[in-house]
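Q: What changes when nicotinamide-adenine-dinucleotide is included in the input?
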Amino acid sequence: MTTVAFIGLGIMGGPMAANLVDAGFDVIGHNRSREKTERLAARGGRAATSVEEAVRDAGVVATMLPDSPDVRAVLAEVFAHARPGTLVIDFSTIRPDVAAELAAEGAGRGLRVLDAPVSGGEQGAIDAALSIMVGGTEEDFAAAAPVFDAVGRTVVRVGPAGAGQTVKAANQLVVAGTIELLAEAIVFIEAHGVDTEAALKVLGGGLAGSAVLERKGPAMLARDFTPGFRVELHDKDMGIVTAAAREAGVVIPLGAAVAQLIASLRAQGDGGLDHSALLGLVARLSGQEKSAL
Ligand code: NAD
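A: The predicted holo structure follows.
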């Protein structure tokens, strides 16, 4: 039985680690706040009080942390304490250049590092149905297949180290733009007094249909912005895609506008809400609601 050390047991990492337990892995978890580690132990995993304790006997190390500095800090410890040959799979969404840099550093210490950001949200994590975009070597990708199969449904190697994060940045661009336009459509339909539930049903069956509409639409109508995917994390991702587009010399005019709207939502104190709270911002911009909640 392979031991998987799982670091970062939040909204996504918690259910992913639980699915690895269900798939038969020996999972040893670590999180900054203890209660999440204890939740994993209650689910059949084991609890570690430090990164070192989690990784020293593991064959695979998985991380699911908020941002690039968090991954840098945790992987520094992983690189110091993991056994040579260990597969290190970072599921977090971070900067592509940082992912490539960490993969090179890990390789220098005899570790095999993959960037493997995911899409599919909390429900996708719970259902083991994530889309996983992987950067790294063919060989390491093949070796990680049993882990990917336990947490994901669509798993694709998209190129060398860092490429997974580049594709994830594109994913976040599309999701942000889609939510913004859905929010504008809902505010528009409501302003005309049309039945919004009926409207979303028929929109969902046509070319305007999307996974975003299907999964976020009902909660948006109910003004339920429980996260899910927090505005502050999407703000981080829009920073990643904006910088990476600039580096590549391409322009993303609509993406840049949506990035500003998400930044505004965060600046107004809504960073902890689900990203579908863009609806509240659009309503406020239209003078229809005084605050998101
Ligand atoms: P989260 O904040 O719920 O989870 C992150 C966890 O990491 C927290 O439990 C936190 O305590 C822990 N942590 C932070 N620093 C740590 C450290 N140094 N040592 C140990 N534990 C530490 O965030 P999340 O929503 O699970 O997102 C995690 C990553 O996945 C982010 O990069 C995010 O962009 C990405 N993502 C999230 C979603 C989503 O729908 N929530 C979907 C796809 C990708």
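Observations recorded in class: The chain is about 55% helix and 15% strand.
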